[in-house]
Specification:
Order of helices and strands of chain B: EEEEEEEEEEEE
Helix content of chain A: under 10%
Number of helices of chain B: 0
Largest interface: A-B, 29 and 29 residues
Structural class of chain A: mainly beta
Strand content of chain A: over 45%
Shape of chain A: globular
Distance between the termini of chain A: 34 Å
Number of strands of chain B: 12
Radius of gyration of chain B: 14 Å
Oligomer: heterodimer
Structural class of chain B: mainly beta
Shape of chain B: globular
Helix content of chain B: under 10%
Order of helices and strands of chain A: EEEEEEEEEEE
Largest sheet of chain B: 6 strands, mixed
Strand content of chain B: over 45%
Chain lengths: 114, 114
Amino acid sequence: DTAVSQTPKYLVTQMGNDKSIKCEQNLGHDTMYWYKQDSKKFLKIMFSYNNKELIINETVPNRFSPKSPDKAHLNLHINSLELGDSAVYFCASSLPGQGINEQFFGPGTRLTVL
Amino acid sequence: AQSVSQHNHHVILSEAASLELGCNYSYGGTVNLFWYVQYPGQHLQLLLKYFSGDPLVKGIKGFEAEFIKSKFSFNLRKPSVQWSDTAEYFCAVNSGGGADGLTFGKGTHLIIQP
């Protein structure tokens, strides 16, 4: 009964490939997010998405695209992978409202680009 | 734009010492404030949160934090640390509404020596 799950946990791939990371939440939340944690442990928001709006961090290259087949899933697709994309990617979800937007995080996907 | 500063990037303490980790944020409106902990190789766990009411909030594992609006601060404290508190600690803020992602500080790496 994991709240926010991600697959795969580890992903090793070559430069130039296209890959996807999947995220699912069973909390009934309506907003989901992707964060990137770099090698210095710094966490940065990439996208937030609900059924009404997609908010994109302007620093995110357009090779990254979120895809949401339904409210419980927000997948991250990455085209033409580069060495600098190596990081840990965390999915999160929340149910904004009632004054607080608390986010629940998945276990992370460690992406290594060779 | 929001920003979060964590002043201590690396902290080394002995067991039973008291802990205070500084966090200052920059945002003019209503904020939600959070402290997350990341144990080695694991995902982010929420320690505590503040969005309104009593500015002294208590979290899990004996942690507490005090919101001081005039100082834009949300410092994390624990009276007596344990070896198991060794982890990365992140302060984060969002505006609480809509699909706002979290803005994180750069983290504090805490090492507790037995």
